[in-house]
Specification:
The complex is a heterotrimer of chains A (209), B (102) and C (339). By secondary structure, chain A is mostly helical. In chain A, 64% of the residues lie in helices and 0% in strands. Among the domains of chain A are: 1-79, Four Helix Bundle (Hemerythrin (Met), subunit A) (Up-down Bundle); 126-160. In chain A, helix 1 runs antiparallel to helix 2 and helix 2 (26-46) packs antiparallel against helix 3 (50-75). The chains are: A mainly alpha (209), B mainly alpha (102), C mainly alpha (339).
Chain lengths: 209, 102, 339
Amino acid sequence: METVIFALFAALALVSAIVVVTHKSPVYSTLALVLTLFSTAVLYVLLGAPFVGALQILVYAGAIVVLFLFVIMLLNIQKEEEAHAGFGAQTWTAILGAAIFLGMMGLIFWRSGSPAAAPLTPESVALKPLAAQLFTTYLLPFEIVGLLLLVAVIGATVAARKPGEELGHIGEHEYVSGEEPRTDPLKSGSDPHQPSVAEPAYSSQREAS
Amino acid sequence: MSSVPVSWYLLLAAALFAIGTIGALTRRNGISIFLSIELMLNAANLTLVAYARQLDDRTGQLIVFFVMAVAAAEAAVGLALFIAVFRQRHTIDVNRMNLMRW
Amino acid sequence: MSPELIAILAKYAVMFAVLINVAPIMNWVERRACAYIQDRPGPNRVGPLGLFQPVADALKFMFKEDVTPSAADKPLYLMAPALALLPAFTTFVVIPFGPDITVAGRAVRLMVADVDTGVLVFLALSSLSVYSLVMAGYASNNKFSLLGSIRASAQLISYELALTIAVLAVIIPVGSFNLADVVAYQRAHVWNFLPQIIGFLVFLIASFAETNRLPFDLPEAESELVAGFHTEYGSMRFALFFQAEYTNMAALSALGVTLYFGGWSLPWIEFPHNLLGGVLGLLTLLAKIGICMAVFVWIRWTFPRFRYDQLMRLGWKVLLPLAILNLILVAAMTLAGWL
């Protein structure tokens, strides 16, 4: 039973991971990533870590990846430019490097032949010892992570501001038009599947020079 | 009930990490690179949980907890940066973000 | 098949039989209630009091022509409605619906998945429901749909925070994520909505946003976005979204009554630990869910829709601080031994 579940979700994770890195459309990539995360969450549960599994779906699939999708739809990112498609030297080098890495890891795990793990008991999957350890031994990292998230929220808010907007006026100016530059791509363009904003002149000049 | 050896999980994690590496190195779309990095983080998490199972030690699961929190922070800041870049350059193709290159 | 597996399947069959009937019944209730609130008769032609109206609606959905827009992203477009139902029908597995009973000499716990991480599983699965909305909106290749799903993704993430923190405050005094323990705690003490009235109000408001119901139905606001993310969906596919909406409402109502109103239990009444007790527990839970659903309907036809910036401001600047305040209060009260 456990082997069947493992095989099923391991295969699902691998296939969807390949879709993540190969599909041209970012939306499909993102949705495939959700599938990978879900399959790994199932594997976490198999490994006796139900808390991590639930957290994986709740935080990763339920919030972080939704943020990705939100940005993709907000920026209306379509398929990559065809000019970069195809197998260049970079692709082959990357595949070679990854294959060497995989081969070495495989060799290590195969050779080491780790002893069979102790069977799972209700005590070993219980949540309370986990919480106790988190809030005693790892209290300082926990607090630091909280601070980090606060800093990240502030940083993200500042970085994603409209250009030229005053820091103290976020909110009040949201619906006043004419303040932001006319080329703000998030405001223009009515058809979501047609890139409506022309490439700015300066970037093409740089490409040419 | 037959138990799956922990080394299988490790192999799977290595494979996921390798796939993520390929993606991060070959994709040109900023968001896709980001997704590949998330894939690599996920593979590392799987390794940590697998070792936590092998060694019967919960520290691995706790590190995964921290990795997820840091990944959330990373995603928030990274995506905000992409929005900022997109406002300026109207693309998130990393090959075109070459203003600092000479 | 092992007896455990049979027990699980039997329990899920009970849940499924209940859930599959939520949407047709609510369809009738919603239309009659809205008509009553607006002082008009409502559907009253099919059967007595229009009771067979849902059957007629279902037949209409089935025989209507199934149109797929030519510019749609086919795989995602077809997957989205099915995916909408998935979280709605799975979250119920962690809701207890009766006392521990003994059937044919075996002790049976009346919840499908008796796991330590119960509440987390519920929240995790329900957080996946945003994907069907996003997929539907993106795949329809329609600007109203896309706007609807952008709104949906932002709204659902924002309100999930407040909802989750409000739920966590319930968990603190109980000390277990298992909802059966939450019910047991409330039977031993007092229903949670009394000491945690702030948390309950936050939960209530956030659950309206999570189910996309008026006053927060911005993803499908029909006066601005035609029908939002499901603009391009017709016939049975629309019916699936419709069903998912009501099933989600039922799921969140079930979580709400389990967390704050004692779940399947009633104060001062001990249900017998046999099949009869199980049925009584289930009926009690259903009655409580029914009251919650009636409140959903009542609110929908009473309140106007929020503007999107008002929605975001309410979520981030009012509900989230309130939820955190409630969490701190409850933690302090638990520490002081008052709970």
